[in-house]
Write a structure and sequence with these properties.
single chain; alpha/beta; TIM Barrel; 11 helices; 40% helix; binds 2-phosphoglycolic acid
Length: 248
């Protein structure tokens, strides 16, 4: 069983969201996998209501605020997202960290808020090209992981991790299966240490960064890669179906 997740970023308004679900035909293996789509917040209602949406496709939001309500113009809270039909949320996507300046501490607060509201967070970690060249991959991804783990105060509630090397996102550059396996192994070992092996085993670690139908299979067979988080190649219904098919 793999997780196949589509992060639509700032693409697909309500009309394009309805069109996506009306043309999406999931392959016959879909029931063996967990399938997630993260539309923009303004398209969530259209995705929830899309009559043709297969209930196998679960929905999430791409970002939340850590407070439950208040004077935070432009933000949405975890409880609002949940009420609107989201079951999942991304937190700490590299575009949030690097374009909008989110810190590890803010990501941890969002992670905690999601869990408190009953949303399943997908915490994203990953190094920049400069950090990779400076041999700092482990240090960076463990720092980012430790920040979210420090907010895990109860055994309740699920979460997922995604390793998304910043240099591989939207660039056509994909980590090799060996690069992915090395980073995922590092994350898996820390999860084991922090949560104990049986709880850690319930945390899937997704790979993201230029995943396409043509390379998904190879990445999914790398060790400790439990799923994929896909941007560009998740926008087209046929391509998304092909990604699910590639999960085997
Ligand atoms: P990409 O994006 O597949 O377009 O590289 C992945 C992501 O940012 O989640």
């Amino acid at each position: 069983m793999a997780v196949v997740a589509g992060n639509w970023k700032m693409h697909h308004g309500p009309r394009a969201t309805r069109a996506f679900f009306s043309s999406l035909t999931l392959p016959s293996n879909a029931g063996s996998h967990e399938i997630l789509v993260f539309p923009s917040a303004v398209s969530l209602a259209a995705a929830v209501a899309a009559p043709e949406r297969d209930p196998l496709v679960q929905l999430g939001v791409q970002n939340i605020h850590w407070e439950d309500k208040g004077a935070f113009t432009g933000e949405i809270s975890a409880s609002m997202a949940r009420e609107a039909g989201a079951a999942f949320t991304l937190v700490g996507h590299s575009e949030r960290r690097h374009v909008f300046g989110e810190t590890d501490e803010e990501v941890a607060r969002k992670f905690k808020a999601a869990r408190q509201a009953g949303l399943v967070p997908v915490a994203c970690v990953g190094e920049t090209l400069e950090e990779r060249r400076a041999n700092r991959v482990e240090e960076v991804i463990l720092r980012q992981l430790d920040a979210v783990l420090s907010s895990v105060d109860s055994a309740e509630g699920r979460f997922l991790l995604a390793y998304e090397p910043v240099w591989a996102i939207g660039t056509g550059e994909t980590a090799t299966p060996a690069d992915a396996a090395a980073a995922h192994g590092t994350l898996r070992a820390r999860l084991d240490e922090a949560l104990g092996p049986s709880r850690a085993a319930r945390v899937p670690i997704l790979y993201g960064g230029s995943v396409k139908p043509g390379n998904a299979r190879e990445l999914l067979t790398a060790s400790n890669v439990d799923g994929v988080l896909v941007g560009g190649a998740s926008l087209d219904a046929a391509s998304f179906a092909a990604l699910v098919e590639a999960a085997g």
